[in-house]
Each structure stands twice: as C-alpha cells, then as structure tokens.
Amino acid sequence: VVLRNDLLKAIERNQFRVYYQAQVRLESNDILAAEALIRWEHPEWGMVSPNEFISLAEESGFIINLGNWMLREVCRNYRKWMEGGMAPIKVSVNYSSIQFFERNFVENILNIIAEYGLNPHFLIMEITESVFMKNPEKAILDIKRLQSVGIQVALDDFGTGFSSLSYLNSFNIDILKIDRSFIKNVMLDEASTIITRSVIDLAQELRIKLVAEGIENWDQLAYLRDLNCYSGQGFLYNKPMPLGDFEQLLVCEK
Ligand code: G
Ligand code: G
Ligand code: MN
Ligand code: NA
After folding, report:
1. Are 244 and 80 within 8 A, CB to CB?
2. What is the predicted ipTM?
3. What is the pLDDT of residue 173?
4. Residues at Cβ < 5 Å from ligand 3 ion
C-alpha cells in the first residue's frame, strides 16, 4: 500500500528517470539504437527496478500515465540529441499489453511525438507476445498503423513465455529480440546453443532484424558474430545508464 501511494505520486515528485542501454551492430560496433528503461529514484529505497513496480502500475492503470511520461521524456531527450548533431540512432521503448489496448493508443503516441516536432521513424516499440494473445485483430491493425508512419515493432523476450512461431507469420514484426536466457547459456548448454543458432537463421530467412539480449562475455559475442547475428546489447558493451552518461557515449560516436 505504501509502495502504491508513493508510486502514484512519483511523476509529480519527479522521481522517475530514463536509463539508456546501447544496441550495437555486432560487426562494426556502431550504436544502432538505445533501449529506454525506466527507473524510480525513491528517496528512501534508492533506485527501484521496474520489476518491482510495473505490474503494480499495470493493475492500477497508472501504467498509462507512466507510459506517456516515458515517451515525452524520450522525445525531449531525442530532440536535444538531434539539435546537438548526434548520430541519428533509434530509441526502443518497452510497452506493456495494457498500454497497447488503451483506446486511442496509436493517436496518443503520434500526438506526443508531434508535440516535440519529431519524425516518428526514430521510435521502436518493444512488445511481448501477450499483446497478440489478448486481441489479435486489434494488434494487427495497430501494428500496421504504427509501421505506416515509420515506427518499428520489436518482439521482446523471444523464445520465452508462450511465444509461438505463428506470431511471426500473422504479425509483421520488424525486429526480434532473442531472450537473454538463451544467450547466457550459449556454448555452455547444447540446447541453448542450437536454439540461438536457429533463431539467428530464422530471422535472416524471414528478413527480420535480430537483437541478441544479455551479451555478457567475449565467448558469447564471438559465437554470435560467427553466425552473422545482426545486433546485440548487454553488459559486455554497457549497462543501462543515466542520460548524461549515455550522451557521452553518443558524443564519442559522432
Ligand atoms: O531495466 P530492467 O532490467 O530493470 O527492466 C526490467 C523489466 O522492466 C524489463 O522487462 C523491461 O522490459 C521492463 N521495463 C523497463 N522500462 C519499462 C517501461 O518504460 N515500460 C514498461 N512497460 N516496461 C519497462
Ligand atoms: O525484458 P527486457 O528485455 O526489456 O529487459 C531489459 C533489461 O535487461 C535491461 O533493463 C537490463 O537491466 C537487463 N539487461 C541488459 N543487458 C543485460 C545483460 O547483459 N545481463 C543481464 N543479466 N541483464 C541485462
Ligand atoms: Mn526490452
Ligand atoms: Na527481453
């Protein structure tokens, strides 16, 4: 209850932060995109992970306000990057299925982006398969509309949960993010190694861009590079970091 009351006030109290983690082209080390990840800087508990509060935000409906806050913050920062002449990378934002099924979901996103005078094509929307399970007809239409203005759609945590290959058929996904539980065991566990290799092949054949999540060491990177895996993110490159630190990284890319 304490957590919930605090959460509902955290926007007005200016306690949310956006952290960024680079998504890197494996072949060249170029930064392709930044995944935006929310953090709650609580005065007593310090930096609170979204794992601790996203489901609470979903249950209470607060996730809608939180998502709007997040997109505005991402747009505001992105505009600053563009004005500073930074490399035009994309920004990848996580959406929960609750947000996806809000009534004016797509209009709302386009309105916010327009407020900041940005072209929507900088945005990648990360969703999970729960979006497809709830209301596939609406999901197909919304994904089409997002893509028609240049927003790309990424399927997050691929290979976990109930992810089905048929989703790749019915929903026109731009990017697949293979879950870090597979990358973690690459070269250590035979099944994870084979699954990873197969997903890389699958993405290539379907012409879907693949992001390998959770790359933590050189062995994993070497394996993924050998198989021509397109891109990845993980602690080997960098951890999610505050805005200022990420901007330093972008300046070096310039
Ligand atoms: O960054 P971290 O490992 O703490 O993220 C934990 C989980 O929270 C991940 O599943 C991530 O997708 C989710 N998450 C992070 N930021 C957001 C956000 O802004 N909105 C939603 N819906 N989920 C987020
Ligand atoms: O569910 P989602 O893929 O959105 O979760 C993203 C979160 O995964 C990031 O916020 C970050 O905290 C975590 N993460 C990113 N890279 C790594 C990594 O290399 N190892 C581990 N264990 N977690 C990572
Ligand atoms: Mn994600
Ligand atoms: Na993931």
Report:
1. no
2. 0.97
3. 95
4. 94, 126, 156
Cβ proximity of 53 and 16 under 8 Å: no
pTM across the whole model: 0.96
pLDDT band at 1 (very low <50, low <70, confident <90, very high): low
CA-closest candidate to residue 129, choices 93, 108, 154: 154
Do 193 and 220 contact (CB within 8 A), yes or no?
no
DSSP readout, 45-99? TEEE-GGGTHHHHHHHTHHHHHHHHHHHHHHHHHHHHHHTT----EEEEE--HHH
- Contact 38 CB / ligand 1 (< 6 Å): yes
- CA 235, CA 30: separation in Å to the nearest integer? 16
How many angstroms separate the alpha carbon of residue 37 from the centre of ligand 1?
Answer: 5
Q: Where are the beta strands (DSSP E) in 183-238?
A: 209-212, 231-232
CB-based contact 11:224 (threshold 8 Å) = no
Question: Which residue's CA lies nearest to atom 24 of ligand 1?
Answer: 94
Are 153 and 124 in contact, with CB atoms under 8 Å apart?
yes
Distance separating alpha carbons of residues 7 and 129, to the nearest angstrom: 26
The residue range of the domain holding 69 is 2-253
Distance 115 CA to ligand 2 centre (A): 30
- Span from the CA of 176 to the centroid of ligand 4 (angstroms): 10
Indicate if ligand 2 lies below 6 Å from the C-beta of 235. yes
Q: Report the CATH number that the domain containing residue 111 is assigned in CATH.
A: 3.20.20.450
Tally of domains within the chain: 1
Query: Helix or strand or coil: residue 25?
Result: strand
